[in-house]
Amino acid sequence: MEIRRWHVVAVALLAVGLVLAWAAAGQAGMKVGFSVSTQVNPFYKAMADGVRDQATAEGYEVTILNADDKLEKQIADVEDLIQKKIDVLIINATQDGAAAVLNKAADAGIPVITLQRAVPGAKVVSHIGTDNVVIGREGAEWIAKKLNGKGNVVVMEGIPGAASSEDRKKGSAEIWPKYPGIKIVSQQSGKYDRAVALGVMENILQAQPQIDAVFCFNDEMAMGALAAVKAAKRTGIAITGMDANKDAREAVANGELAMTIALPPYDIGKTGVIFAKWLQTKEKPVPALQVMPVSFITK
Amino acid sequence: MSEQRPEARDDASAVGRFEGSAVPRTTEPPIDRIIERPSSAFLSPRSRDEGSAARQLLRGYGSLIGLVLICLVLSLLSDRFLTTSNLINVTRQVSINAIVAAGMTLVIITGGIDLSVGSTIALAGCTALLVARTAGDLPGMAAGILVGALVGVFNGGLVAWGRVPPFIATLATMTIVRGAALVLTNGEPIVKSSGAYLWLGQASIGPMPVPILLMLGVLLGTHWFLARTRWGIYVYAVGGNAEAARLVGISLARIQILVYALAGALAALGGLVLAARLSSAQPNTGVGFELDAIAAVVLGGTSLMGGEGGIWGTTVGAFIIGVLNNGFNLLNVSPFYQLIAKGSVIVLAVVVDQLLKRRAMAARGPATPTPARSDGGPVAPAGVQPAGR
Predict the structure, then answer these.
(1) Is B161 helix (H, G, I), strand (E, B) or coil?
(2) pLDDT tens digit string along B45-93?
(3) What's the Cα-to-Cα distance from B166 to each of B5, B85, B267, rounded to whole Å?
(4) Distance from CA of A141 to the nearest CA of B (A)
(5) Would you call A8 an interface residue with chain B, using a CB distance cutoff of 8 Å?
């Protein structure tokens, strides 16, 4: 009996405490600042929408500043946000050069969360974004499964040496050995360019009588490869892209491309605000690195 | 280049003088009479051409031998290389670069360079498809070519009247035109999957794809222009010795604007073929195409100093680049090694070409009055003075 009464009191106190805490949080609100690199590109527009929508849903006061792809403007923006005494800084950096001002925020006691672009040398509590190695891995896995583990695959890389291309290459290279039936008959660079990919694919079509899939590291090259395959009147070749561009989506919809990979900018923005909440409420530990899953767009 | 800049101001007046008095613009006699002297027989189309057919062949030999060697090696390494379908494939791929490089040849012979052709390819394609959407395909194509020619006129104007060195002028135009293409399209590709314009890239006449026929037309046309017309002589003259050309009454400005306009229009034609091949135009395509075109010209033995060279060599140069790319893909060479191999082959071909050229020159020896220029480029003809000097 004694124990039970103690329980009741404890639960009641906890409930009152939570209500008070909630009320206090509601009154003070949380001030979230988001500095975004640009709003010209739809990718970053969607990211800012994600931040705004989630912050509104949580009842936070949110300030979104657009750096117009200029580091100087971004530094000034972040300094303004520090002056505004925001509680959490979320930033999609323009360049690595943002590190100094991010540390200024951290030193002022403002936790920093980076989105999509990691900033080396900056004191951040969390980074949220996609990982090109993972994208390469998952794309290769998709192709292997699509071909039931057996077939001739052409890999179309991006610009030789570009970090995104090399990471995607690294990721896909981890997958192929798991499928002994998959043969990489050609692995060439289309330089992320539709016109270049057209020529490269035409040449590969000359050399390879049997091709089952073409794994392209972006949509532009997928569209170029598609033009080459169509002109050569070859059929039964599954071509995949990445980025989910408008015309690639259309090509997927009418069955010309097999798949394109969509990145989740909106979810990256939302997750940034959710992590900001967790920092405040401590309801869950905030991971230092959150790799966001990509999605496959198919017909 | 730089030393004739101060005097170049006289161009207009010099032309005016000739137009007004001694030298009517279009007719045969005066300039020819002035120029066609024993000491400068090379300036007459016919005599220059007689020497030049053999000489141009000789000049092209280095690269031609290189091309044959590359083909030989590739046919040994890949049984797919020497097939009819692959040879047509390579030629079709070469066609765009060859069309662009033909215009580049004219510019380089005048001692200039055009770095803006890659951007022009993109702008022309985008303009053409945007106009075609509302006004129809033919006006669209015309608009594309016109935009290319205007970019060229702008380049030529900067070089001729603005006295901006061609490298800087066309470097600036390159970024301006790229920006214009991005603004025009809002950075998005323009897709047009039907229409008469597709004929340029996707149709064939008999077994011959249209791009190949267009390339043949452009190559023959520019060769004819250089070898058979008065304007062709002037192009060599401007690059060979601008001061002498000016003294005999050739308008530097007019020639420069003409060659840049032709280069722009031909780049635009290349852009239309590219758009037709892809059923779409991209504002960010054609990056680095200017370097392939310049490489084709230089591989073909045309000197970057101007005053010599020709279309035949450029054709061989364009094929070397196309065949190399084709071979790399057929043999699945790693993209990293491709970069090294491509550069090495270019260096090798140019070195062989230089050696052959020097030998040919030594063999010709004293018979050639102007050994400094392998084709006897138009050096100031003795005794040639315009009226009033």
Answers:
(1) coil
(2) 434 444 555 555 555 577 788 899 899 999 999 999 999 999 999 999 9
(3) 13, 40, 17
(4) 23
(5) no
3-state SS, residue B221: helix
Contact B278 A202 (CB under 8 A): no
DSSP state of B302: -
Nearest CB to A160 within list B92, B191, B339:
B339
Number of domains making up chain B: 1
Pick the CATH number of A132-262 from 3.40.50.300, 3.30.470.20, 1.10.10.10, 3.40.50.2300: 3.40.50.2300
Calpha distance A6→B339 (Å, rounded)? 77
Cα angle B12-B14-B20, degrees, rounded to a multiple of 5: 95
What is the rounded CA–CA span in Å between residue B370 and residue B376?
A: 6
State whether ipTM is beyond 0.90: no
Rounded Cα–Cα distance for residues B305 and B239 (Å)? 7
Measured between CA atoms, the residue of chain A closest to residue B209 is: A231
Question: A224, B332: Cβ pair inside 8 Å?
Answer: no
Q: CB–CB of B158/B113 below 8 Å? A: no
- Whether B335 and chain A come into contact, CB under 8 Å, resolves to yes
For the segment A54-64, what is each residue's pLDDT rounded down to a tens digit? 999 999 999 99
C-alpha–C-alpha distance, residues A172 and A156, integer Å? 11
Dihedral sign for Cα B116, B121, B124, B126, please.
negative
User: What's the gap in Å between the CA of A160 and the closest CA on chain B?
Assistant: 6
Chain A residue numbers with beta carbons less than 8 Å from the beta carbon of B278 are 194-195, 198, 223-224, 227
Same fold, A30-129+265-291 and A132-262: yes
Q: What are phi and psi of A295, to 5 degrees?
A: -120, 155
* B188 at interface of A, judged by CB pairs closer than 8 A: yes
Asked whether the beta carbons of residue A206 and residue B287 sit closer than 8 angstroms, the reply is no
Q: Does A42 contact B at CB distance below 8 Å?
A: no
State the pTM of this model. Answer: 0.77
* Inter-chain touch A203–B330, beta carbons under 8 Å: yes
Residues of chain B with pLDDT under 50: 1-50, 367-389
Q: Could you tell me if residue B2 is inside a domain?
A: no
Distance CA A296, CA A137 (A): 13
Tell me the residue range of the domain where B301 lies: 7-367
| Chain B residue numbers touching A214 (CB-CB < 8 A) | none
Q: Check CB contact of A160 with chain B, cutoff 8 Å.
A: yes
Q: Widest CA span of chain A, in angstroms?
A: 86
> For chain A, which residues make up each domain, given as ranges?
30-129+265-291, 132-262
Determine whether domain A30-129+265-291 maps to CATH 3.40.50.2300: yes
**Which helix (H) or strand (E) is B52 found in, with range?**
helix B45-77
Whether residue B39 lies within 8 A of chain A, CB to CB, comes out as: no
